[in-house]
């Protein structure tokens, strides 16, 4: 009896060990504010799902493409763009709201990913297609920001980063871009170890000019999105100093002050906003060196109207 009690006490002291690692992540809100899209591994492999905005009425949306991820709604709500894997490479797709007959828009031997729609109906994404060495490690390739029409035509390159620039998001007023950019310098990695490659949030004009760092921290800063009024960039960062933990922040690109929006015992990443700008949705998760699991959460956002 004593041996059993000791084993139970030790198990309790070390904390529970997760058995499943379901991840509902990358929330995207429909333009009418009624429907949530997200990707999830809840059925054993990654697929796209829809639900009502409160998380009820979850239904499978698309699972006939390998690893469909990062959904984003078109401005008119009739299509969803996403990244999927074909023959080991990531490409950008669009699909109608019935989830049938997805159309592949890119076919490049690299990582075409993180599609976001602009207010004028173009799809903005990142791609390493002009990197000097396509055989280089992913982190050594030149990932730049591109855009195209929803049929894949009229490809435009917006940046010349000569490094990793990902997760590009155009401002709703159509004047600016925000994106994650990896630069050389002192860095705090995801696990809080020190490094020399720093992930920051940048803003630039649509042509890549007037580029500026708006997160300004050695921490890992990423997943930037705009508020609907184009006033703030919302992003995630591990600058709170906890391993495998990120929280949500807001910054006015013109003023520069970073505002903390969450300080939760759970991590938050991949923020997106409701069309009225009053609610932020995030991937809320627990992660350590061995496990990760999480869900979609939301909280009120009031900073944009001080």
Describe this structure in words.
The protein has 306 residues and is mainly β. 4% of the residues lie in helices and 46% in strands. It has one helix and 23 strands. It has one helix at residues 2-14, and strands at 24-29, 35-40, 47-52, 59-62, 66-73, 79-86, 89-96, 103-104, 113-117, 123-127, 144-148, 156-157, 165-170, 176-188, 194-205, 212-213, 221-226, 233-237, 247-251, 258-260, 267-273, 279-287, 292-300. Residues 1-13 have low confidence and may be disordered.
Query: What's the gyration radius in Å?
Result: 20 Å
In quaternary terms, these chains amount to: single chain
**What is the terminal-to-terminal distance?**
61 Å
Q: Give the strand tally.
A: 23
Query: What are the segments in which pLDDT stays under 50 over at least 5 consecutive residues?
Result: 1-13
Overall geometry: globular
Q: Could you give the order of the helices and strands?
A: HEEEEEEEEEEEEEEEEEEEEEEE
Strand content: over 45%
């Amino acid at each position: 009896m004593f041996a059993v009690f000791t084993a139970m006490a030790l198990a309790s002291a070390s904390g529970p060990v997760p058995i499943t690692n379901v991840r509902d992540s990358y929330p995207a809100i429909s333009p009418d504010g009624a429907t949530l899209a997200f990707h999830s591994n809840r059925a054993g492999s990654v697929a796209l799902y829809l639900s009502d905005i409160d998380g009820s009425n979850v239904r499978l949306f698309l699972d006939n493409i390998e690893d469909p991820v990062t959904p984003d709604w078109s401005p008119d709500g009739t299509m969803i763009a996403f990244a999927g894997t074909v023959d080991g490479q990531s490409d950008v797709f669009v699909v109608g709201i019935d989830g049938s007959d997805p159309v592949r828009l890119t076919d490049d031997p690299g990582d075409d990913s993180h599609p976001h729609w602009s207010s004028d109906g173009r799809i903005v994404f990142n791609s390493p297609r002009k990197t000097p060495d396509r055989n280089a490690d992913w982190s050594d390739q030149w990932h730049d920001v591109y855009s195209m029409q929803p049929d894949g035509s009229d490809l435009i390159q917006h940046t010349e980063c000569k490094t990793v620039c990902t997760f590009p998001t155009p401002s709703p007023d159509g004047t600016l871009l925000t994106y994650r950019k990896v630069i050389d310098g002192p860095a705090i990695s995801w696990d809080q170890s020190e490094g020399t490659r720093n992930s920051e949030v940048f803003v630039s004009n649509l042509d890549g000019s007037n580029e500026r760092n708006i997160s300004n921290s050695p921490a890992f800063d990423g997943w930037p999105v705009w508020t609907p009024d184009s006033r703030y960039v919302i992003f995630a960062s591990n600058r709170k100093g906890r391993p495998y933990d990120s929280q949500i922040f807001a910054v006015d690109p013109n003023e520069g002050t970073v505002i903390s929006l969450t300080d939760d015992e759970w991590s938050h990443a991949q923020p997106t906003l409701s069309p009225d700008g009053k609610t932020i949705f995030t991937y809320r998760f627990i992660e350590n060196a061995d496990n990760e699991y999480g869900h979609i959460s939301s909280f009120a956002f009031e900073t944009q109207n001080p």
